[in-house]
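Box 3.1 A note on notation
Throughout this textbook, protein chains are presented in two layers. The first layer is the amino acid sequence; the second is a token string describing backbone geometry. Keep the layers aligned when reading.
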Amino acid sequence: MNVKTVIKFLETIAPPIYQESYDNAGLIVGNASTEVTGVICCLDSTEAVVDEAIERKCNLIIAHHPIVFKGLKRFNGKNYIERVVIKAIKNDIAIYAIHTNLDNMLYQGVNTRIAEQLGLKNTRILAPKKNLKKLFVYADEQVINQLRHQLFEVGVGAINGQKHLSYVSLGAGTENGQGFAKVKLEVLFPIALTGAVKGILAAFEQEHNINYELSEVENANLQIGSGMIGELPKAMKEKTFLKYLKERMKVSCIKHTALQGKTIKTVAFCGGAGGFLLRNAIGQKADIFITADYKYHEFFDADNNIIIADVGHYESEQFTINLLHEVLTQKFSNFAAHCTEVNTNPVNYYF
């Protein structure tokens, strides 16, 4: 089992095409053809985590955060980023990051784990992305049936929790003045499947007389996007919920805006720095917005419309480690996967 095989599996869960433009998810260090001896799952691939990998004889680190965001011009160990890269290369350890693409997943994503920790129901993406495409195909009925079957096999027509969605209509075409029956297939698919769809269409073009059109659509993909929102099984008083939040998220303190003397029922949240989603949370009438990395002046933006609760960046994403460990152990038995025992949180609190 090589690194490439592990990466290919992870990218079925969180396709790289869904990472944000500023991100640097993917294989940061290492050779994809290397056989995997063991995996360390972590949030941050620090020097201590690389040392842990060496000690456990693991040659693959799967981190949530990329150790390298910007280009490196020198490798002389002057900072922790260079030291991590140098140590990983010297010890033949690969580092793979699965970052905002995992953040943006409704299923098996970072925010899904937060929802599970908080016991929320009716969860959905807070800010869905517009990343759907539509395929029109014109061909004989028999060809359309064969094509539709192959498209369904790669995931086309699986939209917003439903599978094998398509629309077929019968029409009349003309050729050399003669009329004949033609069938039109219409089907939606996530943009991540574009390559697979084009491959299937190319094969059919060689064997059958088909005409097709690909276009982008305005509909949002409710399975992909930023943040999530859901409901508590039962409304709580504000202080009761903050205590519950502290316990469930395993945090030592919470920074929050003024309480409003209301109950908490609808909860919006985003692991990591999610302040850009505040308007979405207010617009969907959330009672509280849970995220991290809020600055002083940004707290004013609550403007008595919502409670902002900052639980800390590491704290909000810490359950991602177990998520990565679980999906790997369920899929692979050829190597051991470990949750890191290193606390990589750079923020400390004095009480």
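The mean pLDDT is 94. DSSP finds eleven helices and 15 strands in the chain.
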